[in-house]
Amino acid sequence: MTAHYLVLSGLLFAIGAMGVLIRRNAIVVFMCVELMLNACNLAFVTFARQNGNLEGQIIAFFVMVVAAAEVVVGLAIIVTIFRTRRSASVDDANLLKY
Amino acid sequence: MDLYVPILVLAVLAGGFAIFSVAIAPFTGPKRWNRAKLDAYECGIEPTPQPVGGGRFPLKYMVTAMLFIVFDIEIIFLYPWAVSFAPLRGDDGRVIASGLGIFALVEMLLFIVTVLAAYAYVWRRKGLDWD
Amino acid sequence: MIHVLAADPTLADFGKDPVWITIIKAVMLFVFLMLGVLFGVWFERKLISRMQNRYGPNRAGKFGLLQSVADGLKMGLKEDLFPRTVDKVLYLLAPIIMVVPAFLAFSIVPIGPMVNLFGVQTPLQLVDLPVAVLFMLAMGAISVYGVVLAGWSSRSPYALLGGLRSAAQVVSYEIAMGLSFVGIFLFAGTLSTSEIVKAQEQTWYAVLLIPSFLVYVVCMFGEAARIPFDLPEGEGELVGGFQTEYSSSLKFALIMMGEYLHTFTASGIAVTLFLGGWRAPWPISLWEGANQGWWPVLWFFIKFVLTFCFIVWVRASLPRVRYDQLMSLGWKVLIPVNLAWILVVAAVRNVVVNNDTSAVSMGLGAVIVIGAIAIWLRFDTVNQRRREAKKAQAEAEFEELSSEPAAGGFPVPPLDLPHYHGVQHKEIPSGTN
Amino acid sequence: MQAPTIEYGTLAPMLLVFGAAVLGVLVEAFAPRYLRKVMQVPLTLVSLGGAFALVLVQVIMRGAPTEAVAMGAVAVDGPSLFIWGVILVLSFVCVLLVNDEGHFVASAAAVPGSADEEEAEAAGGAHTEIYPLLLFAVGGMMLFPAAHDLLTMFVGLEVMSLPLYLMCGLARRRRLLSQESSMKYFLLGAFSSAFFLYGTAMLYGYAGTVSLPGINKALAGGALLDPLLLIGFAMLGVGLLFKIGAAPFQAWKPDVYQGAPTPITALMASGTLVAAMGAVLRVFWVGLGNLDWNWRPVMWAVAALTMIVGAVLAITQTDIKRMLAYSSIAHAGFLLIGVMATFDKSQQNAGSLSAILFYLLVYSFTTVGAFAIVTMVRDPGGEAGHLSRWAGLGKRSPLLAGVFAFFLLAFAGIPLTSGFFGKYAVFAAALASGSESGDSLGGWMTGLVVLGVVASAVAAFFYVRVIVLMFFSEPAADGPSIAEPSMGTVAVIAVAALVTVGVGIFPQPMLDVAHQAAANLFIR
Amino acid sequence: MSSLWLPILLAVPVLGAVVVALLPKGADQVAKQVTLAVSLVVLALTLVMAFQFPSAKGDRFKFAAVYDWIPSFGVHFGVGVDGIALVLVVLSAVLVPIVVLASWHDADGVRTADGTLITPKRSVKTYFSLLLVLEAMMIGVFAATDIFLFYVFFEAMLIPMYFMIGSYGGAQRSYAAVKFLLYSLFGGLLMLVAVIGLYVVAGKSTFMFPELVGAIQDPATQKWLFAGFFIAFAIKAPLWPVHTWLPDAAAQAPAGAAVLLVGVLDKVGTFGMLRFCLELFPDAAKAFTMPIVVLAVISIIYGAIVAIGQSDMKRLIAYTSISHFGFIVMGVFAMSQVAQSGATLYMVNHGFATGALFLAAGFLIARRGSPHIADYGGAQKVAPLLAGFFLVAGLAGLSLPGLSSFVSEFMVMTGTYASKAHGSGALTVAAVVSALAVILAAVYILWMVQRVLNGPTAEPVKAFKDLNVREIVVLAPLVALIIGFGFFPKPLLDVINPAVNQTLVNVKVDNPAIAEKGAGQ
After folding, report:
1. For chain A, which domains are there?
2. B10 CB near a chain C CB, below 8 Å?
3. D444 CA to chain A: closest CA distance, Å?
4. Partner C, chain B 69-128, Cβ-Cβ below 8 Å
5. Which residues are CB-contacts of E212 (< 8 A; sequence separation ≥ 6)?
6. For position B68, which CATH number holds?
7. Do D415 and E200 touch (CB under 8 A)?
8. What are the chain B neighbours of A71 within 8 Å (beta carbons)?
9. ipTM, 2 decimals?
10. Which of A5, B131, D259, D422 has its CA at a distance of 20 to 30 angstroms from the CA of residue D59?
């Protein structure tokens, strides 16, 4: 029963990770990261059910908190860089290299 | 899981109704094509539809969204706290599980004070003002 | 003394219905809500007309009772417009997303105690969950998606702005609303609506937790986007807000329905959480049978209708507020007041329930109360008024001095001399130097 | 239900830092602009100093406590206290650098070159929010290595990282670089913490708990080839190794170090590394201690790769901060050698643990000093980052260049500098753990140490190259100016140099402290 | 128990260095004088100590002092000298004042006779304070009886020398300095691994040399650790094929620094082989004897041949040193008392001889501004005194009988020839082959001398001034020592022989040569 949720969570995580690696828009990359975090939440809740304790659900709360904080910080950074450069593409941010 | 079955039933009813309404509309109404009718409404001037991908909207809304998240999360923590604050009593008034008592009070006080500090900061920096 | 009635349903009583009973209950609720919307619209129009000294709808059917039905039919027969620019899928999806959760939100409202329904003992409530109130809030939040999607998919500036405004408003008031429930949970110790109703046997929470209740009442209008807080529509400024492009047809009907259902849910929640639910009010509750069988449905319905009347009454009485005022009220008054109130309640509960009268406990309570008062004073408008008065005084003084340089020895030439700024046409507003 | 308890006294240092951070936010909210800095700086310094004093009190009053407090969420044991102490001192020192004028932008939100920015500049003062942010980051750094379960560790990780992401974007000069570094750091950091979290989820699924000892206990009796376990361990490892900048997860480090304001770089290069290393140790020793046969080969490869990548790539760098970043990567590799050197015998473990703690201490002080000097060498457009600008610095400013050369020699691990003893301690611990085993491990450890030596030699090349530039090249005609250092900067450099020299000549007291901290190992 | 001699000997130059470094800006002259004074004080102290040596207490290491330094690593500040170390300490102490005098103007910027600037003016204070630091380290490295302490000095010594080459050297100075540092550092780090390994494997929780002798029994472990130490020492005492840094470093270093580099620093390598490689890992040393001797022979021949082809005076001298170091290494590993005594003696003599040659060459270069042999010619006529010293030093370099190098070279060759350490006659062959180098040495030295001193006097050379007093004071003692020890090496050998015997006992060489005590005389 829980296996399905785990597979789903794994898929979501993989999609998120691929998105981070492939996509070029910072916002999209960022949302992919959020997707990964939510995949984690799904896994936690599933395991909480499987293990029969509540720890996983509590962790999911905390993950939400952290994800929210990450949203706040991340969007602030991305918006700032967008205002400066008129572009949110990760590829355009290429000043830092050897 | 059974608890959610009734909700599912109601959702099917409501959803069926909504989809039916949306789907039936093209067949019940007349069709009189008119170019102007299909323009986006903009008080009569030449419309400037938003570009695909959505238009730009004021940053202000983003700030509000973030503040919402922050406080919503606070609520997430307040609810379990509130529920387990008082001791749980059985039907006969016997205490089944003791409450968290003063510990919880102190912790929540710290928590709320922390949130209020951030809140005060946002307020003072005009994060809550609309112009 | 705790008087326990056998009829009081608890969380344990749910999830046991046979499927057919469940379906019957669901259908009943659905029909109740559909009819409620139809007659609610009529009722509101009628009521508001009487308040404004006119008749209101009176053509279709007796007392115009069928007016809503006629409106609905008319909408169904209108042309189904798709503005050229819209994003079709989301444009169609938005009304559905708005209306379905609105139905679901009502499912946790208890309408009565255990009743005998076709030979089955079942609580008169579609379902109760351990997280019922949270579920209700969640459904309310999902509706916001509908609003935002409606605005966004329309590809029209008004719609987009309206959608965003609406979202901002609803989420803002959702916080205050969520906070206003915390006091209840502190008392009831549960999120299940049926148990909260049970816990109000002695006293309504509207009495015990007046500030919470008041906050909730304010939030109720914000959540349901009713006048005086119907900014998302704001036909005066935003044409129709997020629904600008939903000019007619059943899609518009769905949106309207969703909004009405939210109003109903808001009333239902008010009744359930603060006004004792289906329980009979005091004088009637002296009658032994008042809270048994099907009678409570009547009490619930009365409370429900009265609450709805109140909402309509407010609509008839108050003008729409400005958007910034709306947000200020939500963010700057309701939230801090609520937080302070929660701490006060917790401190009191700590002393009362745990019988913890130790110095620490009392001291902490005192600190919290004082802190809450301090916050109240800080956020009180009196303070702000004083400050603004001071500022106005300073400005007036400046005006006076600047208009008459000789009088106060102001060492600058009058600011409106032509050579001072007239040449460059550079405006120098008064008050700057 | 038992009411939970929190040992406020034991946690006091951390709580003080967090409390001061909240207070700092309030100062930001209510103090008028001109008073903010005046209030923030003492507040920050006093709280960090006070927290350090509390750590000392804790050590003096109770020896080295070993207890899991806050319902087993936070472990206050020898290594924790040691790391706390180090981080507090380092951050104190970094605050002195932050305090210096001119590092931070006046308004981060203003578009560079816009009227907004001009206005903000004219209004004076930079973001004083930097102080509460820094305190939050420090608090996170304290929580991260002391966390006794993976959830707390995750929270600590984020509390540490989020302010750092922001602070990276606040450089006053070269705003674009700074913002870019901030974004890269954020995206990659968030990515890695997602990995950490998913690893946590998998381990939770495996063990039914996220408490580190709980996981270890589950490992003792459970199947060691469970896919949940393996995925979990691998992903957790990715998240942690990212934070210390181990290869192949090192890509962010040079970019971020270069773009961030240098005082923040100093904080990251020291405090973050210390904290992350502490967390790595705790996870791998306490949480996955019974899995060491699985993670050891991986760690071997990572350590080897990290040292080589750090040392080799540093050679090609032309920017001083990038070079120091790669150097930091190489040093992370050396530290990982120490992580490898764990063994069943607790005495060996204590030995290598104390070696790592000692290494962290000496490396972080040197690194702060080096970055402090970087802040002082300036071009008209900001700090003179490009190495060619450093040519002939030894002639223009012999003292500064001399101290910097000294720090570089310490990085290279030349005897009579603290860096030498750090390296020595770690290598010795690694060889010792290898020799005890009496099986193939000994050869592997020796091989790793030899690799480490080769990497040190390669690394020495680029350190020496900078010295060559500074002392043996002719200064450019329009060379960078040496900023008149503030008292704070001087103090930072002096402290760093003193530690580097002092520990380089008399390492014993610090070794004693590290030994004592490591004596009882982590609590399990 | 602890003798304060060596700690004082270490402290004096360090204090002197601090004093010099703290002198006010512009006090160059004072700095030079203070440095000279300090180095003379050190020399005096060393000589007094040396004369007390035969009567001093202590079984092997006399003037021993042991203090705890880093107890948790088992590291001590342990110093003490046996005969071998003593002569090398004395060598250092003798050379430093000479170098101070010789490099009196090195930091002032070197100008040619016609006034072109070769090296710009640099900080004088820094130079002399580095020199004093270096002196302390040189004494320390020979006197250390704690292996860790030895390592610390071994590595730390690089830094002052690195700066002296890099800041005060010739045109290619930074390249040479970096090459020097990296070679040495790499070797040093390998040695560090071996040092740690030794500590760990021996399990004695101490780094004190006497306690670690014979501590490692397992032959395989010995071999690994031996390799670690040996590579470091081979780099240091430039042994073919890891010698390539030396010609660059020696050619670019200022003459004074080059003297210390070749005269003393490189001796640390051969000293280390003798002291540590042999005694700590006797089995491995025996096992590796043949390959090492082969390398040594290659060094001897290769150094000599390459030297012939050099056009740069300092490079030429550097290559002759590589050849000489081959002799020393061969002597060390010949495992016979005569050869080892000869090798030790060679270390000292080579210091004097090559020192004199470098300094004389340096004086020439200071006059002409060019290291190329072809730029000179006929110097004999304009500067006879300088030419004379140059000739004597050169002859010492080719081990002319009667000059000190001859004794040691002869001892090494006979010792090796007679050594039965490796069973077969392999060492005999090596000795025979190495004898070829004597002929080659004659070629390179005499040819250089001829090209520099004889022939028609070139135009720029005509402007040469002969040696001034300072320069005579520099060269004269060295030449005196060369000639003195050439005829009367006994005082040195008396000190060296017991120490070498002790070494051989520790190595457990059952060698008849031990009986033939003093065969070389």
Report:
1. 3-85 (1.10.287.3510)
2. yes
3. 34
4. 71-72, 75, 78-79, 82-88, 91, 93, 99, 101-102, 104-106, 108-109, 112, 115-116, 119, 123, 128
5. E147, E198, E202, E204, E206, E280
6. 1.20.58.1610
7. no
8. 66, 69
9. 0.83
10. D422
